[in-house]
Structures are given as structure tokens and as C-alpha cells.
Amino acid sequence: MYVDPDVQRLLDDWDPAARDVTTLTPEQLRANAELTIADMRPAVAVAEVRELSIATRDGRVAARLYRPHTGCASGLVVYCHGGGWELGSLELSDRVLRRLCRDADVAVLSVDYRLTPEHPFPAALHDCYDATVWAAANAAALGAPLDRLVVAGDSAGANLAAAVAQLARDTGGPRIHHQFLIYPVVSRDFSTDSYRTYAEGYFLTRAAMEHFWTLYVGDGRPRYAELLSGATLHGLPSATVVTCTLDPLCSEGQAYARALTAAGVPTLLLEFSGLIHGIWYRDGVSTAAYRFGATLGSVLHQAVVDVG
Fold first, then answer.
1. What are the Cα distances from residue 225, in Å, to 35, 38, 84, 94, 185?
2. Half-sphere exposure of 141 (CA within 13 A, CB side)
3. CATH number of the domain where residue 126 is located
4. Local confidence band at 41 (pLDDT 50, 70, 90 cut-offs)
5. Are the C-beta atoms of residues 253 and 242 closer than 8 Å to each other?
6. Helix (H, G, I), strand (E, B), or coil: what is residue 267?
7. Average pLDDT of the segment spanning 63-86
8. Among 177, 277, 283, 286, which one carries the catalytic annotation?
9. Which residues pair with residue 226 across a beta bridge?
10. Is 178 a catalytic site residue?
């Protein structure tokens, strides 16, 4: 089993107690997550960063728009951050989304969706879907072409992005041209090969994922949360699925990519050997993470340019 030397240094310095879901409150877990970016300043420069408030069916949701220096962006990406539906924020994802905006030459709309346990399923999905509908209707004002709309996210955020793509297809929603899914959560199945092999010791644990799923959906597997088992994938937009080999979610990401391909959806599976879940957010202190982000930017740009 290969572990990138840079990743090994991160694991050696990692304190599992900082993410102990059995003893820490949501507020403590969120504060600890935010500390991962404390040593990664200054931020990457982009042409514009704009704070927004978007009307949704349940009220309003905060969002942050990033625009590249090229003027009219190649595409518009609606982004859902990771964090097990319980953690994460506009600030936590700020650095990596600035890089994605610059490297992929896209406008990025980062959505500050509601979190569990205060707001279980389908609150986060409603926020992300409604923000996508709003983005599609306001693409020109956001400095991006309407015909290059992408939904994207990492981890639980990739679950939300993939669910938005399915929901838009099923309800006649906005036309989405690509889904960009970074180590996605797509199934509540904890018996996969990667869950068995990497259940603990590699940052994300099986216990944490069991906790996150329970807060999100209780004991169920509702449609648009469980996205692999029993889901119909025909007619979805083209996809990029990113996996890391040391990630408990690796097997389900690979399975989702295979299922999309079998359903006739043009899909690129991008696999990173020796990397862990959440590596992207360490790009300011890890060479491996920085290279990971650079590849994401390049691949996303090509996907946006290629969609028809």
C-alpha cells in the first residue's frame, strides 16, 4: 500500500481527538475544522469576490462568488463544500475555490447551505438546488455563460452536487452540463473494500461517516441522499469523479463512476494513488495537496470547454 510521503507527514501530525464525533459538539467539530486553514494564508488572488444572499424555498442562503481575471469566465460552477453535512463553511473552502476559479478559468458560486444536526435532510439539498436554479437564471449577471453550468463539490458536498444533477433531471430543472465530484459520498454502505481497509488511521474514519449519515438522514436511505443503490442514472450530465486510494469512500466513488458509464453518461474517473480524503484543503502546507488542486483545475477547465 503506497502512502505519499507528504501525506504520511500530515498523518503523523494529525490529532484524531480533534475530529472525535463521539465526544465533541457540532460547534467544537466545526471550530476544529476551521483550524485546518489557519496556517494557509495569503489567499490566492482572483478578479472579484462577492458576498451574496440567495432566496430559497425556506428563506435565504449565503453564497460567495469568485470570478477569474479573464473577464467572461469559461463556465459557472455551483459549489457545495464538504464536511459530512455537519461541518464546513464559505471560509473553509475559500482558498481552494480561489485556486479553482483561477486555474479552471471559471466563476465559482460557493453555497453556504444549512448543516446538520440543526437542519437534517433535505435542508442542505434544497439550499443547493435552489441556489443552482438561481445561478442558472442569473448567469450573465455573474459573468459566466449559461450554457456552461457545472455542479461540483467534495465529499458530502459532492453528494449534494450529484443529487442536484439528479433532481434537476427529474423535475425539469436547469440544464446542467457537467458534474464535478471530488471523493463523493454516494452510498450508505459501510461494507465496501475501502471502508474495510481504511476504517481508521487515514483522517476520515468509518465511525465519522456513520455519525454523519445518521445526523443527515436518521436511519433511512432517502432518494437524493442514497445516490447509488437503486438510483436511475440515465440522462445525467457528463461527470468527473475523483477518488483517493487511502479514502474510505474510494470504493463507492469508483462504483458510481462505473454506474454512470454503464448508464451511458460520459464519465472520467480520476484516481489519485497514496492520497487521503480531504487532502485538497491542505494545499497551503502540502506539496501533494497542491498538485492535487492543480490537476483538478486543469481537468475542470477541460470539462467545461468540452461540454456541448
1. 28, 32, 12, 25, 9
2. 7
3. 3.40.50.1820
4. low
5. yes
6. strand
7. 95
8. 277
9. 223
10. no
Mean pLDDT across 183-189: 97
What long-range pairs does 285-289 form, CB within 8 A, spacing at least 24?
A: 285/39, 285/40, 286/6, 286/7, 286/9, 286/10, 287/6, 288/4, 288/6, 288/7, 289/6
- Concerning whether 126 is annotated as a catalytic residue, the answer is no
Contact 89, 34 (CB under 8 A): yes
Q: For residues 253 and 270, what is the distance between their CA atoms, to the nearest angstrom?
A: 10
Name the H helices within 47-148: 94-104, 123-137
Q: For residue 295, name the pLDDT band (cuts at 50, 70, 90).
A: very high
DSSP helix/strand/coil, 285: coil
Active-site residue (options: 4, 112, 127, 247):
247
> pTM of the entire structure?
0.97
Strands (E), the chain: 48-56, 59-67, 76-80, 107-111, 149-154, 178-182, 238-244, 267-272
pLDDT at position 75:
96
Question: Cβ distance 118 to 127 under 8 Å?
Answer: no
pLDDT band at 70 (very low <50, low <70, confident <90, very high): confident
Instruction: Out of 74, 155, 238, 251, pick the active-site residue.
Output: 155
Q: Which cell numbers in the block locate residue 301?
A: 477547465
If pLDDT is split at 50, 70 and 90, which confidence band does 284 have?
A: confident
Average pLDDT, the chain: 95
Domains contained in the chain, number: 1
Query: How far, CA to CA in Å, does 10 sit from each of 13, 37, 153?
Result: 5, 14, 23
Q: Is 81 part of the annotated catalytic residue set? A: no
* Percent with pLDDT over 70 in the chain: 98
Domain region containing 161: 5-306
How far is 241 from 180, CA to CA, in rounded Å? Answer: 6
